[in-house]
Write a structure and sequence with these properties.
alpha+beta, DNA primase, PRIM domain, 4-stranded antiparallel sheet, 17 helices
């Protein structure tokens, strides 16, 4: 089938029938045009392939000197967007020619035809149509119509076709100057030059050649492509001399030394936390869970009472899914490693972590100095001048410490109220058990005092109420003295403060 002019009705009819076959599930094609003396585009019409062909004939598009473009895949509505796709029909490889020499372009066009029709390209996909656009080429690959939901299949097949096309262009010197436009080729809702369109920049009309009419079974082909990739995939195993592997070995050895140290001292060991840390250490190195589990079980056997393998899997259930990456500071906190143990086993914080910890310690010391100077009677300006910091910092620290102190006082008041209630209830119970007729007045007086005491506990929040966090406390306004969790009494009953 020789080269034909694309403005002939029979050829555009064959082209549309091949690349947009009629089916029960047809979407809408979009026909766009470029405004003259401008790069702005506008939509001419949209609909099924038959409607596009009618528009071409009515407007004599094949004779007009105007740029027209067509979508490779159909959409479900008037909007030409990737999220409005309806069906996937074609893959178009866009090839640009930067030499802009029409003689070279014609030779390259004939070479492409010869290579795809005459050469033995076993395993290569053959385009159904080759279009010479005037400034390059378009290779149209027809695929069996698919739903837009199979976009990942379309993308995988496009990548494979682009790889094969790049291989052909780089192998033959005649294609020097041709480059793949991968961005345009991967644009699933992109526009491509209509084969009968006039190229206003090269002042030539597009020509095409249809090589065959067999569409590609994209699903079957992509299934084979993915199988090949899985076979070719290399199992990742870190080199023993790599820095990441050596670091993991050192961190594991520190954990092992800590286990032995605590077992020798007779301390309790949280086995699940130790195994969790070992798992996280090696999950940064190995991708295979079997490799990681082998090292975890090796550490588990060092315990005086090791877990069973089933218990290990249960303890590491979350770690298997999340693949946490723990810093040394996090491991130190999780394993409750003291400063002495850190030095002894070599589990220390890294540079950044160490700086953050030291910065926190420095702030804590600064806050204590500010509080001490404030208690000595210095003003905020004087404290800021003494410590060479801003007054705003002093103000923020004092506000934060005051809020913390307020929370502690509230908790302390609550504790005191609870202690009062318990002591009062115990005293009432004792009076009821040992009550005599002569003590009836005392019981009535005690119950009245108890009622007043419980109602007046809230007055403890008043600053005038004497208060001690760990010592005794007294109730104002006729309450009782409380010390050590019991009420003091006298022969005549409970003694008021």
């Amino acid at each position: 089938m020789g080269i034909v002019q694309a403005n002939e009705k029979t050829n555009i009819d064959k082209f549309l029938a091949l690349h947009y076959p009629v089916s029960d599930h047809n979407g809408a094609l979009h026909l766009w045009a470029k405004r003259q003396n401008s790069n702005r585009m506008y939509r001419v019409c949209y609909g099924e392939a038959g409607k596009i062909l009618e528009k071409i004939e009515q407007d004599h598009i094949g004779r007009r000197k105007k740029d027209y473009y067509l979508t490779a895949n159909t959409v479900s509505a008037g909007a030409r967007r990737s999220d409005a796709l309806y069906s996937l029909n074609n893959i178009v490889v866009d090839i640009d020619n930067h030499n802009r020499d029409q003689g070279d372009l014609d030779r390259q066009y004939r070479a492409l035809q010869d290579i795809y029709t005459s050469f033995d390209l076993y395993g290569y996909y053959i385009p159904n149509t080759i279009v010479k656009t005037g400034r390059g080429f378009q290779l149209w690959f027809s695929i069996e119509q698919m739903s837009y939901k199979l976009r990942d299949v379309w993308e995988d097949l496009t990548d494979e076709i682009l790889r094969q096309t790049e291989s052909i262009l780089s192998e033959y010197p005649i294609f020097n100057g041709l480059t793949l436009d991968t961005g345009a080729s991967r644009n699933i809702s992109g526009l491509y030059r209509l084969p009968i369109s006039f190229n206003s920049k090269s002042r030539t009309r597009a020509v095409l050649e249809i090589l065959h009419d067999v569409p590609i079974d994209a699903l079957a082909e992509v299934r084979e492509i993915r199988k090949k990739k899985e076979k070719q995939a290399v199992v990742y195993r870190p080199r023993v001399e790599s820095s990441v592997y050596k670091q993991a070995e050192y961190r594991e050895s520190s954990i092992v030394r800590l286990i032995k140290l605590r077992q020798d001292r007779g301390q309790t060991i949280e086995r699940d936390n130790f195994l969790f840390c070992v798992f996280c250490v090696w999950s940064n190195v190995f991708k295979d869970e079997a490799e990681i589990l082998e090292r975890v079980l090796r550490v588990n056997n060092l315990f005086n009472h090791p877990f069973t393998e089933r218990e290990v899997n249960s303890a590491l259930y979350t770690a298997f899914r999340k693949r946490y990456r723990l810093r040394n500071a996090t491991m130190i906190s999780k394993l409750n490693v003291t400063a002495e143990e850190q030095e002894e086993v070599g589990l220390l914080c890294g540079g950044r972590e160490y700086k953050r910890i030291q910065a926190r310690k420095g702030k804590s010391e600064r806050d204590n100095k500010i509080l001490s100077l404030y208690k000595d009677g210095q003003t905020q300006e004087e404290i800021a001048k003494t410590l060479q910091i801003s007054r705003k910092t002093v103000c923020n620290v004092l506000m934060r410490l005051n809020a913390r102190k307020s929370d502690l006082k509230k908790q302390a008041y609550k504790d005191i109220r609870d202690r009062y209630k318990q002591a009062l209830k115990a005293k009432i119970k004792a009076y009821k058990q040992n009550m005599t007729p002569s003590s009836a007045d005392g019981l009535f007086s005690m119950q009245k005092c108890v009622k007043n005491a419980l109602n007046s506990v809230v007055i403890l929040a008043d600053k005038s109420a004497p208060f001690s966090r760990f010592g005794g406390a007294s109730l104002p306004g006729g309450g009782f003295s409380l010390s050590g969790g019991s009420l003091s009494d006298s022969p005549g009953g409970l003694s008021p403060v």
